């Protein structure tokens, strides 16, 4: 039977879009080349961050945060989400000034989720932090969840509403004939009137098949995880002038990231840890938490993610062909946005427009004007 | 330590030592890295310090290693003991810690001679205090000369089990019972391989000698045992098992188990070399050509890390791989290489003649044990994930080892999945009714051995690719 919508990519964007469409009685088929959650969606840092986002993303991230609060209602699982707050630490007064400007900007846009906290408040929240820190930008409602569990919850909920996921099914050809998208994979031929491109780091290949060139760069940010420690820090921590993302997970391990990139052979989908760069992450952590020096790293990895030149995603209809839509290029911060992206995509497809402003995410924004 | 070597050899067991001696003869700029305080690997552990009586206990083979070591000491300039190698990548960058200092070095050729580890097999009660791998017991015997005070029960299968029992016996340990879990019909499966095995008859005579001596020492040897269980509240109190359809139980405080050994693949796995599931040896091993080349250029494997062959085979294969490395470095042309390797190839072939027989004879009923393993038995010790949780994850659509790992956290603890990789692959395969290779091997996530945050933050970087 022909589905109403065919989605390429079984990551969170694909699964969330599928779920929202199924809730509105659409028959959805998701084609995934590997296994659902194999790439960015299953291996990311799980950060639920509204803090310090691009202004265009603020309306989306704020709505997404509301959905995360009640995530069980959406996917029948709490995704192990914790709302412990996120901090962006200032290590000197210059840092603090920058953060203050940011807080002012957010306020001028009419939002209140990001506030400046002083040194005392900071040490009250994170007593173990190195004493040289002077304050922070803070978002109380932020937190973290478990990525692969989240993806699984979205997938299973979508499946319970009739969505089909076909794994190990790489889309190699797309064309439009007889008012239907004809989609080819080594395992079969599929067709549907509507096509959604949620192909993550490979999304430009699908866009190209639709006649759209997009300047997407696949990159592989690295993460590392330590042995388990007794609980000592609740909020997720970043730093104003260093690359850092630091959190103690539900089970006591520390998850450390910081956007340092692994060496990547994209064709082979092979990443290799760049120890010289990961060294900086370790140095940042030991500078902010000297007592963690002896803590052992047990695992490191990198995930493949789509980056756009302006570090904000592409969300919207194709600019060249009708009945085709894109949601990709989340530039290493799409996990938190995923619940709202599904809603936006379902509105675009079924109502012809999204209730939230998405003009900044147009696919043709990179084309030279005039 | 230099930042760059022509050849890096990882592991100073028989394969690594033989390769090192050969590389030294040809004046190659090479380093030999090993985590132990002294050379010798597992088999020749602490060999340089072993004195008269203890040497006798450990047997004649152990002394064979002495010669190898004397040669090696004479030659090797860049030998680094106490060195943990925690990373290897496809560009042959090696991450290591030596004297507390973490660093990366690079080599044009890397020979991984990391040896083997005991095959972990989950069975009910295997995580109770008082249950230990026989190999761990053997390490205590070799390096510390420690022998358990109480009577021990030994259980499992494989040639090492008899050797260990024999070594314990000679060291004056009381063995309450030796439970042989080798399936009785293995004998029949092994018979066709017997004629070839006779070429390496010294193994067979040795095995018989062990059995004879154990019998003479009054060790009860129970054959055809299955469904092993370690029982007890807080620690081991008894060992129970099935024999001739009857369940029997022996009170015990120490159970030593051994189910054969499997290759140490964790470095080649980290480097991204291709690995195959060896149905006979029931383990993953790197895919190699006849020279020991992996699927990644410049990375070679020799010795038990390539698939179990034993100490002598490791020596020959170590030399063959070193010869190949010399060839790749431009020191030997193809003819010279082939000629130089001729003797070792012949010796290796003779040495390996016994393997098909041993493999068939000692084939561990691994897939059956994994079918029988009760839901509540822990499979991943680090993260305490049970067989039931793994089966449930499979049923919920997590269809391979890596997805099951993502979902249940099995294999995510400090041991990096070494202890459960095989069991999980086998469980996934059994649950889904698919071959083990389809269930797959965990992807490597270095560091292969843990590294501290301060060690990484003070990393000294070697040559960049
Ligand atoms: C290391 C790392 C850390 C991160 N940390 C955070 C964080 O803390 N917070 C946060 O908000 N975000 C984070 N992110 C970003 C977040 O993970 C991603 O933005 C998000 O998961 C993107 O989802 P996706 O569905 O677009 O991509 P993916 O999960 O990559 O899904 C795309 C899928 O499409 C499939 N596909 C591609 N081509 C084809 C084809 N031709 N046919 C069939 N299938 C195809 C792929 O196999 C893939 O499974 C992080 C990302 C990484 C890599």
Q: How are the secondary structure elements laid out?
A:
The complex is a heterodimer of chains A (370) and B (465).
Chain A: E1 5-8, H1 12-23, E2 28-31, H2 40-43, E3 47-48, H3 58-69, H4 71-75, E4 86-90, H5 93-108, E5 115-118, H6 119-125, E6 135-139, E7 143-144, H7 147-160, E8 164-166, E9 173-177, E10 180-185, E11 188-192, E12 194-197, H8 203-209, E13 217-219, E14 221-228, E15 236-239, E16 245-248, E17 253-261, E18 263-265, E19 270-272, H9 275-288, E20 296-302, E21 305-307, E22 314-317, E23 324-328, H10 338-351
Parallel strand pairs in A: 1-2, 1-12, 2-8, 4-15, 12-23
Antiparallel strand pairs in A: 3-7, 4-6, 5-6, 9-10, 10-11, 13-21, 14-17, 14-20, 16-17, 18-19, 22-23
Helix pairs in contact in A: 1-7, 1-10, 3-10
Chain B: E1 4-10, H1 14-25, E2 30-33, H2 52-58, H3 60-75, E3 79-80, E4 83-88, E5 93-98, E6 101-112, E7 116-118, E8 131-133, H4 134-144, E9 152-157, H5 159-170, E10 175-180, H6 186-190, H7 194-197, H8 201-216, E11 221-222, E12 225-231, E13 238-243, E14 246-251, E15 255-259, E16 261-263, H9 266-271, E17 275-278, E18 283-286, E19 299-301, H10 311-328, H11 334-352, H12 355-361, H13 366-372, E20 378-380, E21 385-386, H14 387-395, H15 401-408, H16 421-432, H17 436-439, E22 451-452, H18 453-457
Bound molecules: flavin-adenine dinucleotide.
Description:
The complex is a heterodimer of chains A (370) and B (465). Chain A is α+β, with helices and mostly antiparallel strands and 370 residues long. Chain A contains 10 helices and 23 strands. A 6-stranded mixed sheet of chain A has the order 8-2-1-12-23-22, with helices on both faces. In chain A, strands 5-6-4-15 form a 4-stranded mixed sheet. In chain A, strands 16-17-14-20 form a 4-stranded antiparallel sheet, with helices on one face. In chain A, a hairpin with a 2-residue loop joins strand 10 and strand 11. In chain A, helix 1 (12-23) runs parallel beside helix 7, helix 1 (12-23) packs across helix 10 (338-351) and helix 3 packs across helix 10. The longest helix of chain A has 16 residues, at 93-108. Chain B is of the alpha/beta class. In chain B, 38% of the residues lie in helices and 22% in strands. Chain B has helices at 14-25, 52-58, 60-75, 134-144, 159-170, 186-190, 194-197, 201-216, 266-271, 311-328, 334-352, 355-361, 366-372, 387-395, 401-408, 421-432, 436-439, 453-457; strands at residues 4-10, 30-33, 79-80, 83-88, 93-98, 101-112, 116-118, 131-133, 152-157, 175-180, 221-222, 225-231, 238-243, 246-251, 255-259, 261-263, 275-278, 283-286, 299-301, 378-380, 385-386, 451-452. In chain B, strands 1, 2, 3, 4, 5, 6 and 19 form a 7-stranded mixed sheet that branches. In chain B, strands 8-15-9-10-11 form a 5-stranded parallel sheet. In chain B, helix 1 (14-25) runs parallel beside helix 3, helix 5 (159-170) packs across helix 8 (201-216) and helix 10 (311-328) packs antiparallel against helix 11. Chain B is globular. In chain B, 53% of the residues are buried. The model of chain B has no long low-confidence stretch (mean pLDDT 90). The interface between A and B is large, with 37 and 35 residues. Strand 20 of chain A pairs antiparallel with strand 22 of chain B. Residues 8-14, 31-34, 38-41, 44-47, 49, 170-171, 198-202, 221, 223, 257, 303, 305, 328, 330, 332-336 of chain A line the site of flavin-adenine dinucleotide (FAD).
